[in-house]
Amino acid sequence: MVLEANTDHWNRERGPRLERVVYRNDIPHAEALDKVCNTEGEIDLVSEVSPEEAQKVEDSRYAHLVSIDALRVVSGLINRNAGFMDDVRVRKALNLAVDRDRMINEVFKGYAHPVAAMAPPYSGGAPEGVEPYPHDPAEAGRLLSEAGWPEGRALRLATTSDVEAVARRMAGDFRDSLGIEVEIVEIPDEDLIPAQKALVEKNLPLPFDVLAHAWFDLAAGYPPAVIHREYFHSAGAFRAGPPLEEFEELMGRSVVETDGQKLGELGKQIDRLVHDEALNVFLCCPMALVAVNNEVKFTGHAATLELAETEVGEGHWSRRNND
How far apart are CA 141 and CA 78, in angstroms? Predict the structure, then answer.
């Protein structure tokens, strides 16, 4: 796909700063990354660089890595309809069992932020004074025992291929901190659509206690509009449990609130409620990583990939070739 600049656009302050943008969606990701890191003239920018690939970009003589505090969140979606998952003590035990710092360092290579609930800490939707659950195996074990977790009952942890490493790190923490067995249920890519349909339609019992899950926020500035709604509202696509009356009431108020400051406070109340009820296993907010040619000035955006402020320097290959 080729985009040509509209030089007559009214917003001249913002751009255009490029004459032409060519999207090359016919090149496999690994090949595109190799080209931006090792050559000039074909690929200038590759989005969705994985944490494992970040060092390759850092070591490149042609490209640099841009990390963006993106509006994304990875969590363990708790099926509150499953046995014992409706007990807040069990849900808090799962949160206390997880070593978030270790997960961020090992799985995300440091390119992520711990999160207290579901609102990214830099989104403006995170309430003040609410910290991520600490890694506290002793308290986690006490709560699980107090809730009456049956001896020999394995925790069913489901995962898709994109977050399999997250699930395996979570499983290790649950085993080590809680002393329980964890059964990992892998959802093959070819079965992903039927599995998503089962989750969204809620017609059949879900075959897991916790699902490793990644989601994003397109409503920059108000996470409940996209994140909290989908996970916990009565009409939410990912809700796996009965609606909470207090959550419904807060969301109902937010829908009709027109005052920005009051709306922000409602969002923080919602995130605090989600944290206090431990409705998910809260993990982290991964950064968006982009490999960028050294002669390209790229401005990252938290919610989407935009090129409005992107421009190229005098040393860029396209300008050298035109001289």
Answer: 18
Residue 291: partners with Cβ closer than 8 Å, 6 or more residues away: 33, 36, 37, 45, 46, 49, 53, 57, 60, 63, 64, 65, 66
CATH 3.10.105.10 placement within the chain: 83-286
Q: Do 114 and 269 meet the contact criterion of CB atoms below 8 Å apart?
A: no
Query: pTM above 0.90?
Result: yes
φ, ψ of residue 217 to 5 degrees: the values are -120, 115
Read off φ and ψ for residue 298, nearest 5 degrees. -115, 130
What's the CATH number of domain 83-286, 3.10.105.10, 1.20.1250.20, 3.30.1360.40, 1.10.260.40?
3.10.105.10
Tokens of 116: 């207290």
Lowest average pLDDT, out of 161-175, 202-216, 272-286, goes to 202-216
- Cβ-based burial of 2 (10 A; exposed 0-12, middle 13-18, buried ≥19): exposed
Class of domain 2-69+288-322: alpha beta
Cis check: omega of the bond before 16, within 30 degrees of 0: yes
What pLDDT is attached to residue 303? 85
